[in-house]
Design brief:
By secondary structure, this protein is α+β, with helices and mostly antiparallel strands. It has two domains: about 170 residues, Diaminopimelate Epimerase, Chain A, domain 1, CATH 3.10.310; about 140 residues, Diaminopimelate Epimerase, Chain A, domain 1 (Roll), CATH 3.10.310.10. The protein is about 25% helix and about 40% strand. The protein contains six helices and 18 strands. It has an 18-stranded mixed β-sheet that branches. Strand 2, helix 1 and strand 3 form a beta-alpha-beta unit.
């Protein structure tokens, strides 16, 4: 069978988009899982952080399902949602859409460019929960906000929240950020452990200056990534709760893959976050794949979006220089 796909990235967090909205192709969950493992391997001709399946929806413009490189399904992916927003916007010729995700129907829209020549989309990140049961995190307390977890560190404090993916966030100094501490903690909580039975995304956050932060994330099911959209959203919210930033004000969030902007909204005692950033096409392609042996797929055709790649490289260079000048 032939499979058409688009390679797209949000902040360097790259995905393969497969459209299941037409009648040409549809997969079951076992096939989606095996496709993700086969196509996303960095040893393959494609390679990605996951596959975004764009599917029909009864209550929204489209439905997004996210499968990680290990074949597991994620409940949400902020950078992936921007990529799906770009794809759906182009497909339906609409600037504002609703995308169905596992936990909620979320508003997305094409918006002002974050950097010259960069297709930019604003997506809604919600719902937000601080209940440890929603991660889940096995503690005797109902929430964890700026508190130590003795099993993980005797000095760092963490905030746990679901957006709706599970996140563990710590605001750190530059020495800790550049040490092996994050890797050690992340490996522990994403292996067999009693605290996080389903694993958790771990983000270390460092304030660069007022209104600007750097976020590095170890993503559950993936490992260290260039960026994680829900992690940057969760981290922005945590900085607001700690007085480093303010709600209803744009926060510039830098990462290893570039930068985004976030804005935290508080309403009726709850929170939502706007995640604003690129949806950059790298290439579109066609592969020939045997459903019984996806790993030995053949790349038939590939069309690269050179100009989009070039423009995003300029944003990355800007972000790299900014972080180097402000990381202290």
């Amino acid at each position: 069978m032939n499979i058409e796909l688009v390679k797209c990235h949000g902040s360097g967090n790259d995905f393969i988009i497969i459209d299941e909205m037409g009648s040409k192709i549809a997969f079951n969950d076992d096939e989606r899982s095996r496709l993700a493992i086969a196509l996303c391997s960095r040893n393959s001709e494609l390679g990605a952080d996951g596959i975004l399946f764009v599917m029909p929806s009864e209550q929204a413009d489209a439905r997004m399902r996210v499968f990680n490189t290990d074949g597991s399904e994620a409940s949400m992916c902020g950078n992936g949602l921007r990529c799906v927003a770009r794809y759906a916007s182009d497909k339906f010729n609409k600037t504002k859409l609703i995308i169905e995700t596992m936990k909620a129907d979320l508003a997305v829209e094409k918006t002002e460019e974050i950097f010259k020549g960069i297709p930019t989309f604003k997506v809604e990140i919600s719902p937000v929960s601080f209940d440890v049961k929603d991660l889940p995190l096995n503690l005797t307390t109902e929430t964890l906000e700026n508190e130590r977890i003795d099993e993980l560190s005797d000095s760092l404090v963490f905030t746990a929240l679901a957006v709706p993916n599970p996140h563990l966030v710590s605001i750190v100094d530059s020495d800790i950020l550049q040490s092996s501490v994050q890797k050690d903690i992340s490996t522990r909580v994403n292996g067999p452990n009693e605290l996080f039975p389903d694993g958790v995304n771990v983000s270390f956050v460092h304030e660069l200056e007022k209104g600007s932060i750097f976020v590095r994330t170890f993503e559950r099911g993936v490992g260290f990534t260039n960026a994680c959209g829900t992690a940057m959203s969760a981290s922005s919210l945590v900085t607001c709760l700690n007085g480093l930033n303010e709600a209803e004000t744009e926060i510039s969030v830098y990462n290893d893959g570039g930068m985004v902007k976030c804005m935290v909204h508080q309403k009726d005692g709850g929170f939502s976050i706007d995640l604003i950033g690129n949806g950059t096409y790298e290439y579109k392609a066609v592969i020939e794949a045997d459903p019984e042996d996806y790993k030995n797929f053949k790349l038939i055709n590939k069309e690269v979006f050179e100009e989009e790649i070039s423009q995003y490289a300029k944003l990355q260079e800007y972000a790299k220089q900014y972080v180097a000048a402000h990381l202290k």
